[in-house]
Amino acid sequence: MIRDAVFPPGRRALYERNHYSPAVRANGLLFVSGQVGSREDGSPEPEFETQVRRAFENLNAVLAAAGCSFDDVIDVTVFIVDPETNFEKAWAIVPEYWGEAPYPTLTGIGVTWLYGFQFEIKVIAKLPEARGAR
C-alpha cells in the first residue's frame, strides 16, 4: 500500500526532517499526527497558552490541506506535560477551536516529556467524501 499523505503548506521540511507524515488518508478517514505548538522553524512557542493555540492552528492547517475542518473530527487525543498545572489552562482555550456539541470523543494523557513541548493534539477526522456515510 502507498500511503496517501497530506502536507499543509510550508511544513513539509519539518515533517521530512522528522520522518513522518502530518496526516494519512485511509478508508474515508484522516489520521492526523500529533500537532504541537511549533513555529514555522519547528521551535516551540515559549508560553503555554500560545503553544496550545499554535497546536490548534497547526492542526487546522493539516485538516484544511485534506479538505476538512475541526467539525469533521470524531476522535481527539491530547498529551499534556504537568496536567495538574496545565489542564485547566488548556481547556480554557479549547472552546475557541472545538465548535458546538455534539463534541468529538477525547482521551487526555498526562506525560513527562513531549520533545520540548507542553501540549500535543492528534485527531481522527471523517474525510469530505465520506461525510454522508455513517
From TrEMBL:
Highest taxon listed in the record's lineage: Bacteria
InterPro entries per UniProt: RutC-like_sf, YjgF/YER057c/UK114, YjgH-like
PANTHER family: 2-IMINOBUTANOATE/2-IMINOPROPANOATE DEAMINASE RIDA, RUTC FAMILY PROTEIN YJGH
Record protein name field: RidA family protein
One matching Pfam family: Ribonuc_L-PSP
SUPFAM superfamilies: YjgF-like (SSF55298)
